[in-house]
């Protein structure tokens, strides 16, 4: 059996990294939270701030807040990097 096939059976790549777990390895609560997080991030992309988004999911707010804050911070950094790249002259 090839090293790749052996690694696939073990759930690792040939580089030793774990492959992504299959959906059946997540419990219902994790799947639900992931779906809510996706909805919240979509609302953030459309311009909603964190507080109104969290108000829609008060029971999950404690888990969602840090994730949404990180997402907002990463989005702001990405936008800033894109703006600075546009202001740089093109290389010769």
Mean pLDDT over the residues: 80
Oligomer designation: single chain
* Gyration radius, in Å: 19 Å
Helix content: 55-70%
* 3D shape: elongated
Order of SSEs: HHHH
Strand content: under 5%
What is the helix tally? 4
Largest β sheet strand count, sense and barrel closure: none
> Pairing-aware structural class of the strands and helices?
mainly alpha
Number of extended strands: 0
Written overview of the protein:
The protein is mainly α. The protein has a domain at about 25-70. About 65% of the residues lie in helices and about 0% in strands. The protein has four helices and no strands. α2 (about 30-45) packs across α4 (about 60-85). The longest helix has 27 residues, at about 60-85. The termini are far apart. Mean pLDDT is about 80; it is low at about 1-10.
Topology (SSEs and partners):
Layout: H1 3-10, H2 28-45, H3 50-55, H4 61-87
Helix pairs in contact: 2-4
Which features characterize this protein?
single chain; 92 residues; mainly alpha; 4 helices; 64% helix; disordered N terminus
Write a compact overview of the structure shown.
The chain has 92 residues and is mainly alpha-helical.
């Amino acid at each position: 059996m090839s090293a790749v096939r052996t690694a696939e059976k073990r759930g690792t790549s040939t580089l030793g990294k774990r492959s992504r777990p299959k959906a059946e390895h997540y419990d219902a609560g994790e799947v639900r939270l992931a779906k809510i997080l996706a909805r919240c991030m979509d609302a953030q992309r459309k311009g909603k701030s964190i507080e109104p988004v969290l108000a829609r999911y008060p029971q999950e707010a404690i888990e969602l807040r840090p994730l949404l804050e990180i997402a907002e911070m990463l989005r702001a950094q990405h936008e800033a990097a894109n703006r600075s790249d546009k202001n740089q002259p093109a290389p010769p």
